[in-house]
Description:
Helices cover about 50% and strands about 10% of the residues. With about 190 residues, it is mainly alpha-helical. The protein has 2 domains: about 15-95, no CATH class; about 105-170, Orthogonal Bundle (Arc Repressor Mutant, subunit A). Strand 4 (about 145-150) and strand 5 form a beta hairpin.
Amino acid sequence: MSNTQYKHKPSMDAATVRRESAKPAERPERAKPGRPADSSAVELPASCPLREAPAMASFRAAIRSGSELSLHTQRFLSNKGPDEMGKWIRDLMRESRIVFQPWSMEILFVTGVQGEVRFSTLETMLGASSRTLTNKLRALTSAGLLERLVVEGPPTRITYRLTKHGRATAAAASALFAHLNLAALGRK
């Protein structure tokens, strides 16, 4: 994990993220008009869900928890021999392979955010071809991450929603998506 810490300054108009570097303290720059006095604090755009204080607090807690889990895993694996460690990692990778294929995380994330989603919605939001989307939906359903619901009637309506396993997977990935959103905004 990095040494970057995110701090939120409560405001109704904008949220800020403070980036702390590993370098020694430097003299702060003067505040520019319309910008926070702290030069390492930057405004988050309205498109970023981390603008909201509870979302930012949840993000920070998830990062802390992820760091703690990494340390526990590291200690667990340090007590294993090379063969045992290799088996554990191979088993883990076999289980995670479907999730880390192209389009899988995107489908799980969108389905988690929407609650229940139709094929055409996924196709429009993700821009994936119908063939790719069909294959991924089948694979995620077979893996027990998605549930396919068919409502008979003219017209037949097919929707997808996350299973319990899918919800847990999407929840665990939320901090990663929030981190990637900050990176895309240039606020790592």
